[in-house]
Specification:
Helix content is 8%, strand content 52%. It has 3 helices and 26 strands.
């Protein structure tokens, strides 16, 4: 009986103590800013709270879930029946899109942890030409001077564009000059006469049927402003692509009749005397049915110049000839790679490594 009475007393004391604690209540715990402009800067909302308890309320900490959100709050004790506030400020700079943040409040209230929430959507600020077009090309400004068209299947054309802007206070006339060797590349200037703050485009297309193009392709164009043609890096635009044969429409019979490239080795050691150019013959055999066409052979090293053979009939051999120039190379071991592009659909790109010793 005494034990029950003691437990009951403890419970009553606990309830009495809780009744003496401060109680925090909010008029709202969530705020939706809706759509806000990034360019308008920070936005704020005030969450008001009231102490409905019997003793002073003290907020010991108010913490946001992100550094972009900053809370400030009533620091002094809030007496019973009185109100305080928490101001939550959100910085949208560099944060376009939807957001939702949490602010956690810690206090001596009967419910020691409370949370309030903010959300909204940041509309990004408009990009200004001065921020986009940072590369000077004469009196023009560009975002990029290199255009990669990616993979183009042989027989198809592919185009891309480079933008330019006139950030000066004068009108300018714009043209393009291209190399005669790059006749397979066509171009268009969308805005030849460009006024201040106007934006135009250089449109480039690689027409693969106009040349025996296979593998990596690199072409150049030069920007001509107001009739002044300068062949220099400052005005140079680079257009790259990779041309591949289209094997997608081959039938089962086509594949059975297809050529197959065979090589004795894909790693060849050679000895060369320093300061000389040595010719080397690399045998190639067609173990397939239809003629093997080697479209292109090349090396990324200018010291090696390779030449492809004529089409190789079934069961026959051909030879890739190479001139290896050691001029400028130090004595010792060197490794180079030869790339062979053919109409073998299973191995359209074959790589052969050469290890040559300059003595």
């Amino acid at each position: 009986m005494k034990k029950i009475f003691s437990t009951l007393c403890m419970a009553l004391v606990s309830v009495a103590m809780m009744a003496q604690q401060p109680v925090i209540t909010f008029s709202k715990t969530e705020h939706d800013f809706g759509k806000i402009n990034e360019s308008d800067g920070r936005v704020s909302v005030v969450f008001e709270f009231k102490n409905e308890g019997m003793s002073p309320l003290v907020l010991s900490n108010v913490r946001a879930s992100c550094g972009c959100t900053t809370p400030t709050w009533t620091k002094e004790p809030v007496e019973p029946g009185k109100t305080g506030s928490i101001t939550v400020t959100y910085n949208p700079n560099g944060r376009p899109g939807h957001f939702q943040k949490t602010v956690t409040i810690t206090s001596n209230a009967s419910e020691p942890t409370k949370k309030v929430f903010i959300k909204g959507e940041v509309i990004p600020k408009s990009a200004q030409p001065v921020n986009k077009y940072k590369i000077a090309v004469g009196e023009l400004s560009m975002k990029e001077k290199e255009l990669n068209l990616g993979t183009i299947l042989k027989g198809q054309n592919k185009s891309g564009e480079l933008e330019y802007s006139n950030l000066t206070q004068a009108n300018h006339h714009v043209e393009l000059a291209t190399n005669a060797a790059d006749a397979y590349m066509v171009n268009q200037v969308t805005l030849p006469d460009v006024k201040p703050n106007e934006v135009g485009k250089f449109i480039f297309a690689i027409e693969t049927e106009k040349n025996n193009l296979y593998g990596p392709v690199e072409a150049y164009a030069y920007v001509v402003v107001d009739g002044k043609k300068e062949i220099s890096e400052a005005y140079k635009l680079t257009i790259t692509a990779n041309v591949e044969q289209d094997f997608s429409k081959m039938s089962v019979e086509d594949k059975q009749q297809a050529p197959i490239i065979e090589m004795q080795s894909e790693f060849l050691p050679i000895k060369i005397t320093a300061g000389k150019t040595q010719k080397y013959v690399l045998p190639v055999k067609n173990i397939g049915v239809n003629p093997l066409e080697i479209h292109r052979v090349y090396c990324t090293d200018k010291n090696m110049v390779a030449k492809a053979p004529k089409p190789i009939k079934s069961g026959k051999k051909g030879a890739i000839t190479m001139d290896i120039n050691t001029k400028g190379l130090e004595a010792g071991s060197h490794i180079r790679e030869l790339i062979i592009i053919s109409n073998d659909y299973q191995n359209p790109v074959k790589k052969v490594k050469f290890s040559f010793i300059v003595e």
